[in-house]
Structures are given as structure tokens and as C-alpha cells.
Specification:
The structure holds two protein chains of two kinds.
Chain A (H helix, E strand, L loop, with lengths): L9 H8 L9 H4 L3 E7 L4 E10 L2 E10 L2 H15 L6 H5 L3 H8 L12 H16 L14 E3 L4 E2 H9 L5 H8 L9 H17 L1 H4 L4
Antiparallel strand pairs in A: 1-2, 2-3, 4-5
Helix pairs in contact in A: 1-3, 3-5, 7-9
Chain B lengths: L1 E2 L10 H10 L11 H21 L6 E4 L2 H12 L10 E7 L4 H11 L2 E7 L9 H7 L4 E5 L13 H10 L4 E4 L18 E5 L10 E5 L15 H4 L7 H39 L3 E3 L10 E6 L4 H10 L2 E2 L1 E2 L12 H5 L4 H5 L1 E5 L6 H20 L5
Parallel strand pairs in B: 1-11, 3-4, 3-5, 5-6, 6-7
Antiparallel strand pairs in B: 2-8, 7-8, 9-10, 10-13, 12-13
Helix pairs in contact in B: 1-8, 2-8, 3-4, 5-6, 8-12, 9-12
The chains are: A alpha+beta, B alpha/beta.
């Protein structure tokens, strides 16, 4: 319960006390063109982002959060960044990083940076959702097709696959290496199935055991 | 500023301030034989005597330390060895899973040696079951250390029962009583603990002064700080004279004000809870409303995050604390709330309000208003319905 690091910049405070672009109506009434949702309340952070798209640009962005001051401040900032000057193109918005948001905010305390990564992650999910709704799946960058399994520690299915490829063969080792499922633990069952699946896939077929060639 | 974080620390009592001011020129070393030293020595011993009176123990059972963290370290590090540096620590210690970090982290150090620790799990209300303590006793159990009042949720542990169990089994018993002093009457002739820790700055004295009570019949302890013969050779270093004088005055005032404070502050705490519950749905009081210190309430505001609440209340001029992970810079929320085996989001949403002798009815009414505004503000932007 110690109160270390309240050193938020004036800009963070401004966005925290007067957050911009919050979705205040029912999300069904809002009719978004894309919705992204990451995190979970069990991890202490959860973010929902809604976008409206016009001419391949973000015409509007609305958001909701269960999050701390850092999450609120950075998502509010993000909502301004992608909608100003006629709206950011979807391709550019996809590449938005926490560093760019933190830069605009005038910095964040180091131990709060992990709280600020949900906004851009949710934004990519929203753009992805929009691509799917409009038949543009081919525009989803390849490396980000993987679904997130552990929201708390941000571990995707592809991360688990890679871990197995690197030699992980059980859940315990996977947890030691990725911290997956060590916060709220809700993903453990899914993760176990995936580890078993990929272990089965890679270690029973000859090509992966190195027996052939 | 409406200060409702008195479990973190308290302002100085006006009488304590006076006592410090009046003693500022008394610079003598209490170990000196000349009159300058003797004058200060007399004041220290007066403090010691009044503190002993307050606890109904003997003055030579009071050891002044820099605070409860030092007292806790001293006791635990002595528990399993004859001397902190002359032999390895071995044996078994029983504690709870909601102790202050000065207990839990000190025990972690000992676990890195050869000490085994049993952490008794509290129930969902935050109370240790004495039967669990008794069941955990082993032939090599060297100490039982259970806090009197929890600092986050205010629950009062059945210390009398646990201490009697310890006595029955002839095991040294320690209690960290930091949050109990001035709130619950403690009579050390009736409460059979061997050791008790307290800190001055939770009872309107300054930071940097506390005591370790060590019963005459208790096993010897090794000084954590070795050196001179101060404090019966149990705590070396020239005494914190101003701190000790201040602590003596704080204890005198606690004795005078205890009954009145309990009545008045308890009513204000209840008023705060009632007001918040009247204005807001989905609030949850953590801990055990039937067994807790009168000055603390710990409330979870469902669907919103604690650090946000804390900072917006700060904007309203109200100081509180939270068990949210974001307040600690880690991913883990408060281990105390988590120990109640509730959903993690309840810990992330928790706020502790701790009142003091200075809290007024007006403060409470303003707080209810500000909390209502704050919670509604964040719930409007919460994705959880």
C-alpha cells in the first residue's frame, strides 16, 4: 500500500482528470466499425476500444477501461492522437506504439509503463475486427494473427508454440519461462491444452524430432 | 486536506509537539554522568515508566527501538538462535499470511538459512483460527508471531487465545501490535505474550521511535544493533531522546483519550460506511465488521480500479490508500485482500480509509460526497457491467 511514484506529468494528469473520447452510451447504440478488447479485471487492467472508420482513416475512437491513472491517461492520449488532423490511416494506427504515446504524454513513471500498453493493443484488436468485418483479413499483418492466451502476462498462442519449439514440454516449464497464468490463472486450462497439442504436433512427427534428415 | 490514511502514519498530537519543543534544548547524552546527561536520563525513564504503566508491565521490560520494523527484526532473528551472528538460525516459526512485510520478509531471510516457517491462512474475513495455530506446532517450533490488528483491513486477531496456546506449549509468543495501540486496551499481566512490538508514528508520535516489550521471563534476545550498553545491552546506540520523550507523551495522551476516541471515531467510521452504501451499489466491506479496529474500513468499489480512485480523491483533497497492484508498481494486488480468497478484482478495487482523533463529521460527509462523485465518474467509463 505504499504510494511511491505518483510523479505523473501534467499532461497525464490532465488526461486522467478529464479523459477524452470516453464511450458513454451503450456500445450497441454506438455502432462501431471495429471493437477491440484486451486485459481482464483480475489483472487490474482491462481496455475496450471502439473505432469508426471513414476512407480508411479512424474517424472516431471511443474507449472504456477498468484501469489505473496511467492506463486512463495513455488511452485518452491515444484517442486524441489517432483522431486529430482528419484521423490517422489504419496502417499508421496499426503501428502506433506505447513509446509514441508515452512521448506525447511527456513520460510515465518507469514502473507504470506496463499499465500503458493496453490502449494500443486494444486499438490493433479493433482494427483487426474492422478488417474481419469488411472482408479485408489479408490486411492483418501476419505476425499478429496469434490470439492472446494469457491476458495478464501477454502470452499469445504463437508464443506458446515457439516455447514448445524451443524445448518446453510441460506447463510448469512454460510458466517458469513466460510467467503465463501466474496472475489470475484463468488461462491455465487453455494453456495446458495448447502445450500438449504442440508437444504432440512437434515431438511425435519425425520431422520435428530430428530423426529424419 | 482531509487525511484518512492514519494507518500509514498520523500527524503529531499537539501535546506531543509541545513535549518535543520543550525538550529541544536538552541535548545531553543520557549515558553521561553529569547533570546534563542525568536530566535527559530522568526524562527517558519517565517515558519508560508511563509506557510500562500503560501496558501494565515493568519499565525494564520496555526496550526503545527505531520502530516496530526493528523490534520485529530483533525478535524474529533472535528466535531461532542464541545470537544473530554466532550461530546459524534453525527451527520452526509459526505466523500468519497477512502479517506486515517487516515480519514476512524477515522470515524470508530466515528461510534462506535453515528456518522453516508455517504461514497460517486467515479465513475469508481475515481472522486466524487459534486451532490452526495449535495444529501447526511442532517439537522444534521456536516462536509464534501473529499480528494483533491487521494494517490493511483492521481485523483483530484472537491474540489472547493464541498466546494462551503458546504458553501451554511453552513456545515464545510475539505480537506485532502496531495498529492495536490506543485502539484496544492491552494489559500485559493478562495477555501472556512474551514479546510485543509497537511504533510511535501510528499514535501521533514522530517516525523513528518504537518499542519492543520483552517479558522478564522470556528467553534472551540478541541485539540487532550491537555496541554500547544502552537499553540493558539489548539495543545499542545513543537513545533517540526526543523520540522517546515524544512517545512517552503520545502514550499518556492515548491513555487519556482512548475511550473517547473509540466512541467518536467508531461512530464516524460507521457514518462513512453507511453514507457510501446509501449512495453507491456494489460496494463490499473487506474483513470482519464484527472484529476490527474502530478507525479502519477497507472498501472495494466493484468494477473500478483502486489507484484511479485514490488519485481522484487526492484531487478532491482526500488522502486514502489502496490495495491495487498499480499502487505498488507490481502486477500483484494486496496480499492481504488476496488472502481473503476473493476474486483478484476485489483487491484491485479496494480502498482503505483510516480515521484519526482529528477526523470530523464534516470531513466524513465531504468524503462520502467525493467518493460518490469519484466512483460514479469511473463507473461511467468502465467496460464491466
Amino acid at each position: 500500500m505504499d504510494g511511491a511514484n505518483w510523479n505523473y506529468s501534467d499532461k497525464v494528469k490532465e488526461h486522467f482528470f478529464h479523459p477524452k473520447n470516453i464511450l458513454e452510451i451503450d456500445e450497441k447504440e454506438y455502432n462501431a466499425d471495429g471493437m477491440g478488447y484486451v486485459g481482464s479485471p483480475a489483472c487490474g487492467d482491462m481496455m475496450k476500444i471502439f473505432i469508426k472508420v471513414k476512407d480508411d482513416r479512424i474517424a472516431e475512437l471511443k474507449w472504456q477501461t477498468f484501469g489505473c491513472a496511467s492506463a486512463i491517461g495513455s488511452t485518452s492520449m491515444l484517442s486524441v492522437m489517432v483522431t486529430r488532423d482528419g484521423g490517422m490511416s489504419l496502417d499508421k494506427a496499426w503501428k502506433l506504439t506505447p513509446e509514441m504515446i508515452i512521448d506525447e504524454l511527456g513520460g510515465l513513471p518507469a514502473n507504470k509503463i506496463h499499465c500503458s500498453v493496453l490502449g494500443d493493443k486494444a486499438l490493433r484488436e479493433a482494427i483487426k475486427d474492422h478488417f474481419k468485418r469488411t472482408g479485408q483479413e489479408d490486411r492483418i499483418p501476419h505476425d499478429d494473427k496469434s490470439r492472446i492466451i494469457c491476458n495478464c502476462m501477454n502470452v499469445t498462442e504463437d508464443d506458446i508454440r515457439m516455447e514448445v519449439l524451443e524445448g518446453v514440454k510441460d506447463l510448469k516449464t512454460l510458466q517458469e519461462r513466460t510467467k503465463l497464468g501466474t496472475s489470475c490463472g484463468k488461462c491455465i486450462d487453455t494453456a495446458k491444452i495448447l502445450v500438449d497439442f504442440y508437444v504432440g504436433k512437434y515431438y511425435t512427427e519425425e520431422i520435428y524430432t530430428g530423426n529424419k534428415k | 486536506m482531509i487525511y484518512l490514511d492514519n494507518s500509514a502514519t498520523t500527524p503529531l498530537h499537539p501535546k506531543v509537539k509541545d513535549a518535543i519543543m520543550n525538550a529541544l534544548d536538552l541535548f545531553g547524552n543520557p549515558s553521561s554522568m553529569h547533570s546534563s546527561g542525568r536530566q535527559v536520563r530522568a526524562m527517558l525513564e519517565e517515558s519508560r515508566k508511563d509506557i510500562a504503566d500503560f501496558f501494565n508491565c515493568s519499565p525494564d521490560e520496555i526496550i526503545f527501538t527505531a520502530g516496530a520494523s526493528e523490534a520485529n527484526n530483533t525478535v524474529l532473528k533472535s528466535a531461532t538462535t542464541c545470537c544473530a551472528f554466532c550461530s546459524e538460525n534453525r527451527g520452526h516459526i509459526i505466523t500468519s499470511n497477512i502479517e506486515h512485510p517487516s515480519i514476512l520478509n524477515t522470515l524470508k531471510c530466515l528461510e534462506n538459512q535453515h528456518v522453516e516457517v508455517t504461514h497460517i491462512k486467515v479465513n475469508h474475513k481475515g481472522i486466524v483460527d487459534p486451532a490452526d495455530v495449535e495444529a501447526a506446532i511442532r517439537p522444534d517450533t521456536m516462536m509464534i508471531s501473529i499480528m494483533y490488528v491487521n494494517n490493511e483491513i483492521g481485523t483483530i486477531q484472537p491474540i489472547q487465545e493464541i498466546a494462551e496456546i503458546a504458553k501451554k506449549h511453552n513456545i515464545p509468543m510475539h505480537t506485532d501490535a502496531v495498529q492495536a495501540i490506543g485502539k484496544i486496551p492491552i494489559d500485559l499481566q493478562k495477555l501472556p505474550v512474551d514479546f510485543l512490538s509497537m511504533s510511535g508514528h501510528k499514535i501521533y508520535a514522530p517516525k523513528g521511535i518504537g518499542i519492543l516489550f520483552k517479558r522478564k521471563t522470556a528467553k534472551n534476545i540478541c541485539p540487532l544493533i550491537t555496541g554500547g550498553h544502552q537499553e540493558n545491552s539489548m539495543r545499542a546506540g545513543t537513545e533517540n531522546t526526543l523520540g522517546i520523550i515524544a512517545l512517552g507523551e503520545a502514550i499518556r495522551q492515548a491513555k487519556l483519550e482512548m475511550t473517547e476516541n473509540e466512541m467518536r471515531i467508531g461512530k464516524l467510521r460507521d457514518r462513512l460506511e453507511k453514507g457510501i452504501k446509501k449512495n453507491l451499489d456494489h460496494v463490499l466491506i473487506n474483513g470482519d465488521p464484527a472484529h476490527r479496529a474502530y478507525n479502519i474500513t477497507n472498501i472495494s468499489f466493484m468494477n473500478i480500479e483502486g489507484e484511479s480512485i485514490l488519485l481522484r480523491l487526492d484531487m478532491h483533497g482526500i488522502a486514502v490508500s489502496t490495495g491495487s497492484a498499480c499502487s505498488t508498481g507490481s502486477l500483484e494486488p494486496s496480499y492481504v485482500i488476496t488472502a481473503l480468497e476473493v476474486d483478484p478484482e476485489i483487491a484491485h478495487s479496494s480502498i482503505r480509509f483510516s480515521l484519526s482523533r482529528e477526523t470530523t463529521e464534516e470531513d466524513i460527509d465531504k468524503t462520502i460526497e467525493a467518493v460518490t462523485e469519484t466512483v460514479n465518474f469511473f463507473r461511467k467509463m468502465s467496460p464491466i457491467v
